[in-house]
């Protein structure tokens, strides 16, 4: 096999005119108790040259803070309100009137995210998605805002059935007819775009034996050739995005644009979270900003100038899950940078990726077992099940995390799924916790969920549903 190294000249930036290049925004999450006021946040974004922000609700204090700042805002209709928006057009109209029309155009709301990663929502809101999007759009028409404000919904990469090689990208078969085709039709008819959340960190963390760190961090590397079309990829981000483009193309929706509504890299993680570090986070986000602001698209769509929202603005100390979840921030709550990267073309002039020296000639970190946890190589079968004594509220919170951000495969516990019955919180949580546990190496740290779960050595069974063990994966 021939190998090519990316020539260093492609990283040189010619600062002429990048008016047609992509755009950088940031996600402003607020799951923390120590963040600055929204007014200070607006000032911080302005000082950094960030002109786009995405929020996860429609908090009045936040929307007022961005008034007359020139910052373009994407707001969110939460998953728990999808059913109301889908079933009741008057609810959608009232929501738009209170949360959008009341602030626009002083606050430059440019898009509404209807739900977030709905397909992994354990509350089975998928069936409401397209109807909710249509009703929200009709409400915008009512207030004559439909030309200025687009409606979409962020999907996770777990919505793909195939993602490798990129050209084989396809959406999950059970979602194509009921959701993706009508949603993509809606996006086409309204001139909107598909929102996608993409995290190369997760793919790297789970596959360090086959994915090089340089490839994940946009650094010089031989590249990876797509065996189907011969295109060579020099970074994992492009490969993931092109898998989504290929999935749209397979359904004949090549004309629809794509916006990356979330991507990022944690600056800190637990012992088993390989690659989570300040140096790697700085490299990923800094090199991504350079790529987006200097144009070029992806191998499959070279003219696709992407808008990308970095995740996230701050470290959020009340987020659930592993340490990485609380350490995606570009800034500490005191507004100091976690690491120094630019957000503008002007800032790129002096940007350098401060690559640490290789250790022993190896440019990537090899995965290690640590922490005294339960390892697949040292034990027999083990499972992770719910601890019902912790209480329903904490159990539900842990279940929501496992099926959402945690990436557990929760399709089997959806209505009609083989493990939906018994329809109890303990049974569903046990299935989700075990999926997360088996997927992430069966370490003790992957079966905690804040005390909501415990490891067992006897195969648990709920009704006719048996929880899989690691040896079956």
UniProtKB/TrEMBL annotation:
Identify the Gene3D superfamilies for this entry: 1.20.58.1040, Glycosidases
Gene Ontology MF terms: glucan endo-1,3-beta-D-glucosidase activity
Name a single GO biological process: carbohydrate metabolic process
User: What kind of membrane protein is this, topologically?
Assistant: Lipid-anchor; GPI-anchor
Its recorded name reads glucan endo-1,3-beta-D-glucosidase
Determine if Repeat is one of this entry's keywords. Answer: no
Q: What is its main location?
A: membrane
Its taxonomic path starts at:
Eukaryota, Viridiplantae, Streptophyta, Embryophyta, Tracheophyta
Q: Which family does it belong to?
A: Belongs to the glycosyl hydrolase 17 family.
The record's section on InterPro entries has: GH, Glyco_hydro_17, Glyco_hydro_17_plant, X8
Q: Where in the cell is it found?
A: Cell membrane
- Key words of the record: Cell membrane, Disulfide bond, Glycoprotein, Glycosidase, GPI-anchor, Hydrolase, Lipoprotein, Membrane, Plant defense, Signal
